[in-house]
Amino acid sequence: MGIIKESRKKSPWIVHFDCNSCNGCDIEVLACLTPIYDVERFGIINVGNPKHADVLVVTGSVNYRNARVLRNIYDQMPEPRAVVAIGACGCTGGIFSDCYNVLGGVDKVLPVDAYVPGCAPKPEAIIDGIVTALSRLEERKINKNEVE
Amino acid sequence: MTEYLLNIDMHYAYIILLTIFVGPVVGGLITGIDRKLTARLQGRFGPPILQPFYDFFKLIGKERFAVNSTQMIYVIGTLFFAVTALIMFTTGMDMLMMVFVLAFSNISLIMGAMSVRSPFSKIGAQREIIQMMAYEPVILLMVVGIYKITGSFMINVPFNSYGRPLIADLPLLFFAFSYILTIKLRKSPFDYSTSHHGHQELIKGLTMEFSGLQLAMIELTHWYEVVLLMGLVVMFWAQPIWAGILLAIGIYLIEIIIDNICARTTWKWMLKMTGIVGLGTALTNIIWLYLAK
Amino acid sequence: MLLPALCSVLTLIIKNKFFRNFLVILTLVVLVGSSIMLWVQVANANGKLTFDVPVNIIEIAGWVVKAIDVAVLLYVIFRGIASKKGLAPTLALIQLLILGYFEIFVLKGAETNAIFVVDYLSLVLVLLASVIGPLIIFFGIGYMELHEEHLHLKVSRQPVFFAVLFAFLSAMNGIAMSDSLVWMYTFWEVTTLCSFLLIGHDQTEEAIKNSFRALDLNMLGGVAFAAAIVVIYNSTGMISIQSLIHNHSIVAGGAMLGVALLCFAGLTKSAQFPFQSWLLGAMVAPTPVSAILHSSTMVKAGVFIIVRLATLLAGTGLGNLIAVAGGFTFLAASAIAISQSNGKKVLAYSTIANLGLIVCCAGIGSPAAIGAAVLLMIYHAISKGLLFLCIGTIEQGIGSRDIEDMQGLMKKMPYTTFIMVIGMISMLLPPFGVLITKWLAIETAVDFPLVLILLILGSAFTVVFWSKWIGITLTMSYKKEYFIEKNLHPSMSITLAVLIIGVLCATGLVTPLFNSLVKPYLDGLGYSTAMTLSSSMGDLTVSLYRFGTIGGVLIGPLLIVVLLLVVLVPLFLIHTRPEIIKPPYFGGELANNDIRGIEFIGPGDKVENIVVHNYYMTSIFGEDKLTIWMSIIAGAIILIMFGVVK
Amino acid sequence: MLYNVTDITIEGVLHSAQDMEIQGYRFVTSSCVDNGETLDIYYHYDKDLVLKQYKLNVAKGITIPSISKVFFCAMLVENEIKDLFGVQFSNLVLDYGGKLLLSDGAPDAPMACGGQIIVIEKGKE
Amino acid sequence: MKTKTSVIPFGPQHPVLPEPLQLKLVMQDERVIEAIPAIGYVHRGLEKLAETKDMNQMIYVVERICGICSFMHALNYCHGIEEMMELQVPDRAKYLRVIWGEMHRTHSHLLWLGLLADSFGFESLFMQAWRARERVMDMMEATAGSRIMISTNIIGGLRRDIPADLQRQVLDMVDEVEREMKEMEQVFLKDYTVKHRLVGVGVLPKDIAYKIGAVGPVGRASGLAQDMRSLNYAAYKELDWETVVENDGDCYARTVVRVREVYQALDLIRQAFAKMPEGDIAVPVKGFPDGEVVTRIEQPRGECLYYLRANGTKNLSRVRVRTPTFANIPPLIHMLPGCQLADVPVIVLSIDPCISCTER
Amino acid sequence: MLEMLHNIVKNFMKGPSTRLYPFAIRKPFADARGNLVGIDEETCIYCGMCQRKCPADAIVVDRATKTWTMNPYKCVVCGVCVEICPKKCMTMGESHRTSTKKMENVVQQKKAVEAPPAPPAQE
Ligand code: NFV
Ligand code: SF4
Ligand code: SF4
Ligand code: SF4
Predict the structure, then answer these.
(1) What is the ipTM of this complex?
(2) A95 touching F, CB under 8 A?
(3) Which structural domain, as residue segments, surrounds residue D62?
């Protein structure tokens, strides 16, 4: 299935979830979609719906409340899927890692495939990050859950 | 005529095969060009033209998961009936029946969306029903208008035997049809039930709960539908055929432009406007035909 | 025809349940058998079976009939006065007066020598009444048991119930076959009375109120009918329907008023706007009653008479107006149905709408339209009967007839739901009969722009309420424990099965059906080349006499595709079976991985239930808003109708 | 510096709010500070860009009357104080039950003094 | 007939909400009859960090309350401490603060205009707004070294100056954005479909707006002439500007207010450059503050209140932030009931919600 | 409805304004804070000033082993350390740090001392 494998890399649809992000990373993710950076060149669309998405882009650190949401969104994405953690917060919690309501980086909850450092990372860096994560999309892991 | 109809020979087999296989290629290309052009209109670089196909193949290769085990049946239903409608079109059958079959395709999708408990897909389905309520009458009136001047419901008549371009007699109906084309193509300002860009209150609405292969098939259905709708546009200027194709290209361009210069409105507004503009013009045209007789 | 009447008496007497049931079943079988026999006879008699009876017997029978009639009217007056309702007795009184006047002062000589004439149209009605009717009664055996259980009745009122039902059926057969208007009128009144009794069967306050409403409106129709007889006889000297419809020239003048009056009676009986309210009220009755009223009998009697007169209506102003009235009812009822969440009411409105469509076709009166009307009568009867029974079953299952409560019904009562969904689809989608007739209707209505628009808009609305309903029943909730369809009474499940098979067969056999029932009728009317629905090699084409083939579908090539699909789809489905079942998307706040997809975590971390209802758009299509306006418009149309015939 | 500060007692909370409402003040917000044993709660009001503060000093554990009946917008900040300082409010119009900002797993009343800063990953560096 | 109501969760993950905010919507058909917001998805608890980070480090923390109004948070914080310590910030720094502050306002409003366009499905307009915004971001990077967290505020002044050649570039940017804004204004304020989505939607009458505590553009669109810039901070006293007020109180009025504020901000940048004196950009800070202070400044979304309490050590004992969105959520609860589902995103966005600000 | 037409036609005529990153990389602005590259091991005196001033606690300076460890995934690129360093031995790069699949610390050590292998920042 060469063509499918090839296509996977050419059409990574993203779903963006803002955990504890301060919006800085957030708007930089959105800025990637705008004419100046236009990630649709790579087939990237922000679909907003985990069920359609291939790449989960997470900005910000994880707290007690959004951890369950993050988990749930990830659960609803079909394999193959990748997770990109954006910004210092997404990677480790950054400047907030000492806060009482911060669990830490995204990797506390999900397996992360690419870490994008910076605060806030530039759109260029975010594009890099998504591209880095693409290799994860090539292989398709099957997670056998119960089938009704 | 009856002879012609009843004669099932290889001729049909070829047409059917051609429809099934070439249809989506054309549809996909149209979508690709649409996306590229849209990007350019927004001052972006845009995706490659083959992007829809990448998307399609990627979706096929995704993990198959569903919210319930019946979803796939509805998806097959919608795909099948869309293909059937297109086949009915290419083999020149009854237009009215084709419209019904197309509606069935749509209803199948609605059923699929309603078969899950997700609020977004359910509300999307409700809106889709409302949209259907808005555009079905116009399409039916279009069919009637065509019947009025050609004396037949058969699609092959305007293509083969009726000499004049339909648009000469049905300019207003053509306008009404282009108007609802925006609804059918799910373009702004009428993309209520699902939009190309998921940034609306229902996210992806109708297609919310379909993923992977199912979504790919819905996309495929959409391509067939696009081809069919464009075919209907061509029908308005079927002789010479290139004029019709030019017409279709022109209409599609206008659709893209409209998509880019309009905000999404609300369905109440759509109902009102389709009632006034769509039905109004279509009716005017038909009444005019009656009077002209 | 006498058989059901006899049986009616018997059931009344026999108190033993088992024996009664046996009797009911027996009668049913005989009834079905005899109606099929009748078909054979009709076919042999070249489409017109006349029962010639010696004059003296007619005399006697005539007196019997008149006696029945007077008895009915007196009973109505009695009941009306007993429960202090003024309108119905008054109307009954008027009828008595008219009738008396007619008998004494107007009528001269023998009425007609053939009291019963069965042509294909009558045959259709007889078949409907005595095949679907009995089936519904059969269903009623199981249903009524449960029903009475629910009501905690001490003394079973079933004997009365079945007796009335049978009386009803015999009256229906009477309507279908009588040739004399007077006879028909009698049976007409009997159906009115029976429906009154049936609607009031549960004896609740609402039931009684509604039964009187039904009585009032139908009595109004009865007055019209009675008046029609007088008018027609006065101007043409005829009282035989057959001679009436074959004498276009005679009915030109004053008799047209009579025809209009007959149509008026038909409109009331078929619950067209503005007379729809009785049919809606009839929903309080036990479900088999609604089913029987809506599908095969009562209302069908109404449209029957209009279809009967269709040849007279064709091309006249009256006909056009009737078509408009029908089309308008179709539109209005469909629109209001959108705002209804009570399943039975939706069905009721849909019935009204479909009857509107039939009336509309009859009003157009062109042969193709008549063909469509007859076909629709058949299909509608089967599908609607089925749907009513389904909803009755469901109501007993889940204790509600509200559409919203049917969420996930597919998991709760798969058998019934499956059948019901097919039934609903058959009302809506290709390739089922109702749609085919709708298609025919549109194709034939193409010369009447106003009617056409009404039909087109109406069918758009139809799509809305059906698909909402289908959608909601198909919603899946995931737990097996929801299954509650354990002890379905055999009579109920069998009936459903038979009916759904009927729906499927009738669909698969459109052309044979058309050719053996409808086309002969059209031929009998003298439209031999009027319309053909040919189906050589499975293709369906419609030809109209003026245009030749105007439309058609090549079923052949499609059939190949379908066959391929039948093989491929299961394979495909197996191949693409979902690997995982996952809950729906709730914006990320799904609670406890709830696979049913009901719970989400709301504000303050509280677990709450998601509720999604269908849209009813009450602000646009609300019953209370539309009914008045629609009724006013419809009333106006009817007034104009009488204006036209003047 | 802080100007226009008036001290009030717990009885004066509602009264001062009603007073402010009558005088046409706008409720800006309240701020809570933990002094160890007691809490300072400031009610900030504004009129024509001039701030006016009421300062309430209460011991911990005392239920404070909510002013959300007077100023609906106080509902949010009172819920927040409830979350972060563990203060109870009576008659809240919309009560999130201590779950406005925090979820299960998060520390109780984290902003209250003596509440340990939860140091995650400190040792790992 | 009994009324049928649907209950659905709107968010927290939802593409029209760039940030996690959940609304529990109770609807009848598509008419919302009740809306209850749930927040807490972005709560970090950074006010507590004041106890471990010293007051200088705290600048970078409060700056990261929000990536859109980051500079303003730092400004408010620094301004508070300067007031406590009675520091006299050099004039040039004051003007520079105005410039960066207004650049932030410009980009924030452009961002909002884009998101608004997106919320009613006007993708090309979204693209245009964000393209214009990108020019501001470029200048931010050129002048301060970073696009979002420009981190130029320090207690007592600023870290960075804007040299003359950059000033010219910034002015070019101002001209260009103004040009783009003129084009977009036509669409935002005149386009039929856009007006159809905005006019009369989410109406907040003046008295209710005041009572319920609406601030910033939301308040100003309802006729409340309150703009914290007329308080004495930065150099706004020396500049010539007027509070933008509209009276309709609907989403359209809010759009108008923000569009006009973009022009106003651009104008203020020009003025500030013209009036900016030469000189130092920071004063040295000695010692630690003591006491308490409340400062308020006008952020893009409205009035932001800082309550600071210091105890004479390098750590502040309390930093309390009340952000404009926090104040604008009650108006949101008030506006949503009665609207259509399709208008929910528009109304939610019309307060320009910034959840990370709200929850800190 | 036609107000936007003007704009999109203009967009179309002007051609895309997209920066074709990564095929064409724009020169970063002067003095941009792209990423904290690291220190000059030889100049650094391992005083720990940067560690104390860093708001994100991203730097750990070990005086004893003369190691300077920085977690680039925690650093918020504020530039405080660069400014505060008494030796001005740190470099702030103008371009951004690229993303990686694993997080790794930047560890720098005075040459004289044996360098321990770089441990991953997190599991
Ligand atoms: N709300 C808010 Fe802010 C602003 N303006 C502020 O304090 O953006 Ni995130
Ligand atoms: S990394 Fe920086 S910009 Fe990104 S969310 Fe964290 S603080 Fe905000
Ligand atoms: S402050 Fe400079 S000299 Fe001191 S340890 Fe850090 S890098 Fe080395
Ligand atoms: S740049 Fe800022 S955050 Fe990064 S190491 Fe230096 S001081 Fe720490």
Answers:
(1) 0.83
(2) yes
(3) 1-125
